[in-house]
Design goal:
Number of helices: 10
CATH class of the largest domain: Alpha Beta
Radius of gyration: 22 Å
CATH architecture of the largest domain: 3-Layer(aba) Sandwich
Largest sheet: 5 strands, mixed
Low-confidence stretches: 1-7
Helix content: 40-55%
Shape: elongated
CATH superfamily of the largest domain: Cytidine Deaminase, domain 2
Strand order of the largest sheet: 2-1-3-4-5
CATH topology of the largest domain: Cytidine Deaminase, domain 2
Length: 227
């Protein structure tokens, strides 16, 4: 018969009750496997959650922040980040090469799990063929979004290299509010004009945030054509 002390261990509890019965700290403890000299894995997991304000904070923490906690280190930090990335990929409806983009909802479903908790703004270009099917996507810049940072040269270089017929622009708002700023609108217009000169259409610019998304085409910043 299993003692109460044994059933309190996360691994045994999961075998008895299933993974859904475990707390966030217990699930993290299973990933960590071992603790530090002074704390066991469950205590390290609890401290990790406390320090970052819960599971969402841990998922968005940088490698340096995770590995700085005694009992974590680079190897365990890598395991945690790999687990969260796998979770994001499972949760998202991924835009695979050859898949058509039908509207901003498709873009949001793909990028929301990966960008919703990112602390910095990331600007991504999705390359499309003549039928608006995905070729691939590429990170163009990371940091505060400015016209100088998001230069047409950097945005359209991969599109020219892949002979893309059109692109969709994507970036995130760490604030959680997807409402486009004046800078977002200015950059969108600037890139659309550059695309016209190159023969590459900017179909949309989708802003992704925790609370939802915004399409600058639907807001009238771009002409209402496309997928």
């Amino acid at each position: 018969m299993t003692s109460s002390a044994t059933t309190e261990r996360p691994r045994e509890r999961m075998l008895l009750l299933g993974a859904e019965a475990l707390s966030d700290a217990e699930l993290l403890a299973l990933l960590l496997r071992t603790g530090s000299g002074r704390r066991n894995a469950s205590q390290v997991a609890a401290l990790l959650l406390e320090r970052h304000g819960g599971l969402v904070g841990v998922a968005g923490a940088a490698e340096s922040e995770l590995s700085a906690l005694p009992g974590i280190g680079p190897a365990k930090s890598a395991s945690l980040r790999a687990c969260f990335e796998l979770s994001r990929r499972i949760a998202s409806r991924r835009l695979e090469p050859g898949q058509p983009i039908r509207g901003p909802e498709d873009v949001h479903r793909h990028f929301h799990p990966a960008l919703r908790h990112v602390a910095q703004e990331r600007f991504i270009v999705v390359l499309l063929d003549g039928r608006h099917r995905v070729i691939r996507h590429e990170l163009v810049s990371q940091g505060t979004l400015t016209a100088s940072l998001v230069h047409p040269r950097e945005v359209f270089r991969p599109a020219l290299r892949e002979a893309a017929a059109a692109v969709v622009l994507v970036h995130n708002h760490p604030s959680g509010d997807p409402t486009p700023s004046a800078e977002d609108r200015e950059i969108t217009i600037r890139l659309a004009r550059a695309g016209e000169l190159l023969g590459i259409r900017v179909l949309d610019h989708v802003v992704v945030a925790e609370s939802g998304f915004a399409s600058l085409r639907e807001l009238g910043v771009l002409e209402r054509e496309g997928p």
